[in-house]
Design brief:
Rossmann fold, six-stranded parallel beta sheet, alpha/beta, Alpha-Beta Plaits
């Protein structure tokens, strides 16, 4: 199992730490709030009260030995930026940082974060997408600017092959699987004929997926 550190035990950070710990990983949870740390005592391998904006504190914690470090310091842009920089300087290989805005995310990426998370934006996009297009059954952000979604094949798709529909050529979106009840076709070829009840599993850039869903809504 892996060894992870989570800096900042607010709603997002504590949820990540708890999930990792439940999966059997070694998890160190760190926050400057004694109350938050106390709440995580039984849901992490270690829960430590510390101010990680102090570089010497990070060194003393031996945090560079972690497989990955999650930085989730709420709205404290300056603090998360500084901690991310220190982690990079310490040689942490994987740094997952929570961003509070697009610009903040860009800064975090420039100074060393290997993955940027926008939980509030992604959650809002998921709800808006699901409400706006009834044929969308699932939506999952998978990286900066990219998502996976499950789309109930519209009437106009049925009886046509994927080659006929030209989804990749027209929308630059990949059909990575088709589901229908207990049946799952992974990476279907161009000759696959879309049937009633088929759910297309699509991956692509958010703007391309949006263009496709607007077309079929």
């Amino acid at each position: 199992m892996g060894r992870f550190a989570v800096i900042g035990l607010g709603k997002f950070g504590s949820a990540v730490a708890r999930s990792l710990f439940e999966k059997g990983h070694e998890v160190i949870g760190i926050d400057s709030s004694r109350e938050r740390v106390q709440e995580m005592r039984d849901e992490a391998t270690q829960a430590i009260v510390a101010d990680c904006t102090d570089q010497d504190t990070l060194k003393a914690l031996g945090i560079e030995e972690a497989d990955a470090v999650v930085v989730s310091l709420g709205e404290r842009m300056d603090a998360s930026t500084l901690v991310t920089l220190y982690l990079k300087e310490l040689g942490v290989k994987k740094i997952v940082a929570k961003a509070v805005s697009q610009d903040h995310g860009k800064i975090l990426g420039l100074i060393g974060a290997t993955e940027i998370v926008h939980p509030e934006r992604d959650a809002a996009m998921r709800v808006a997408t699901a409400l706006g297009v009834k044929s969308i059954l699932e939506y999952l952000p998978i990286g900066v600017g990219f998502s996976l979604l499950e789309l109930l094949a519209p009437q106009e798709f049925r009886g046509k092959t994927l080659a006929d529909l030209q989804i990749r050529a027209t929308y630059h979106v990949l059909v990575v699987a088709v589901k229908n009840g207990d049946r799952l076709d992974l990476v279907p070829g161009g000759g696959y004929e879309v049937r009633e009840g088929d759910i297309l599993v699509l991956i692509g850039r958010n703007e391309d997926l949006s263009q496709l869903t607007r077309r079929v809504s």
